[in-house]
Amino acid sequence: MKHYEELAGGEGRRVFYRAERFDAKTLMKSISPVVNVDNETFDLFDISMSGISFVSPENSSWLDEMNRDVPLKLKLGTTEIFIGNGKIRRIEPHENQHKIAIELTKGFLDIQKILEQHDDLALQHTISSGLSDHAHLVPGEYKQAIGDAVYMLRSARELLEKVEKDLGRNDSRGEDRIKDIVLACEEKALEQWREISKTCLKITQALDGDTLAIAATKRYTELLLTPELMAGASWNRAYMKPLGYPGDYQVMNYAYNLVLEGATAYEKFCHRLGTSTGEFIATRMTMTKQMIASLSSRASAKGQKSFNVASLGCGPAQEVANFLKSSPLPISINFTLIDQDHDALSYAYKSTYPEVSRLDGKASVKCLHATFLEFLATGKLFKKLDKQDLIYAVGLADYLGAKRGTKLVTDLYANLVPGGTLLIGCMRTSDESLSWQVEYVCDWTLVHRDEQEMLELTKELETNAKREVVVDSTGHCHLLIITKPE
Prior knowledge:
- By secondary structure, the protein is α/β, with parallel strands linked by helices.
- The chain has helices spanning 24-27, 111-131, 140-167, 174-205, 211-224, 226-229, 233-240, 249-257, 265-277, 279-301, 318-325, 342-359, 372-376, 378-381, 402-414, 435-441, 451-456; strands at 22-23, 33-37, 40-47, 51-57, 69-76, 79-94, 97-106, 306-312, 332-339, 363-369, 388-393, 416-428, 448-449, 466-471, 477-483.
- It folds into three domains: 12-131, predicted glycosyltransferase like domains (Thrombin, subunit H), CATH 2.40.10; 135-277, no CATH class; 286-483, Vaccinia Virus protein VP39 (Rossmann fold, 3-Layer(aba) Sandwich).
- The longest helix has 32 residues, at 174-205.
C-alpha cells in the first residue's frame, strides 16, 4: 500500500487532468458508433465523458472550424444516443487521415448509459436476425435433400439404439456385434449419403453469386443437418475446430487410424461416416509415402549418398512414420517437418523418433515451428535449410487463392536441388467433390481446383520443368508433381 506522499502527479501537459478516454470500437464491438458533425457522418475513434474524436479523410480541411461551436450527434446504427455541441480542439495525423478531437460544450457523455444502450440494441439485433426467416431463399429441392439426410441419420440412430438395448450389458460378444452392425449400417448409409451429397453439391453450385441465398442455405444446413452428425467425433472436431483452425492433425489422425470413436453405437456410426467421407486423406498420405520411397530409391540407384525431404504443413506426418518403418531404407534420408501447430509437431516427432533411433543414423527428423505467414514467405523460411531433393505440401494450397498458390509453388521450386521434385496437393473440382460437405456441413472453406488450375500454379516456373497432375483413387483430390531439370 502506498502512502499519500508516494503518489506521483502528472508531468508536463499531463498535469492538466483529462477524462479517461476509451476506444469506441473496442468499447462497442457489436454496433460500430458514428458521429454526425455539421450533417457529415464519420467513424467514432474514441470517447470520454467530456469529448470525442473521429477520423476524417485527409483531403478534408478542419482548420477553419477550429474552436468553433458545432452541433453533433452520436449514433449506434440508426439510433441517436447523444445530441449536443462541441468545439474542435485538436487536429492530428492518423494513418493517412486526420483525427479530429472535439471538446463538448453542451451536454456530457454518460459512458455507462451508452454502453447499456449499445448492449440493448445489440441484443435486439441478435434476436431479430436470429429469428428472421430466410428459409424462403433455400431451394425447395435442397430442403428435400436435407430432409432425406436427417431421416436417414435418425433411422440409423433408432436402429442402433434398439440393437444396444437388445444386446444388454452382459453379452460377452456385445462390442464385436455392435462393431459389426455399425460397419454394416455405415456401408449401406454411405451410398445414400454420397447421393445426397452429390444432389446438394449441384444445387448449391447453382446458387453461384447469390450471397443471400448461399447464406440462408448454409444456415439451414447448420441448423438442421449438422447437429445430427455432431455425435461423431470426426464431424464434431471438423465443425468445432478446437485448435482454432480447420483440418487439424487430429482430424487427419481420425482418417488414418479408422478407430470406431464414440461411447454409443450411433456415435461410432457417425464418426465412421465422417472418416469414410475423408478417405482421401489416408489415400493422399499413402501416395506421398510411395513418392518418398520411389524418389529415394532412384537417388540411391544414381549413387547419391543422402536424400533431403521437407514437408510444409506436415500435420502428424504419418507418411514419414510409415516410410521409416519400411526396412532397410534405400538411402540415408533427412526429413524436415514444418507446421504452425506445436502439438502437431510434437505428435509427429514422437511417432517418428523411435524409428529414427532404430535406424541408427540412417535417418534424421527435425521439426520447425513456423506461423502460417511464414509458410507464405517460404523463400525466407527455406534459407535455414539446405536445398531439398523433395518438398511436399499436400494440404496447404487448399487454403490459398491463385496468386498466393502460384507464389508458394514458385518459392518452393526455387529451393529444390537440380532434378528435385515438388509435390503439391489440392482438393479436386468435380460433380462428386466434397465442397458441399466441408463448406455447408462443417463450415470449412477449401479451394477446389481442376487440372488446368493446378497447372496454372506453375506458370512462373521455367518451361522445361516437368509437370504432371495425378488424381487419387477417391477422385476427391489430386497431386501436382513438378520435377526440376538436372
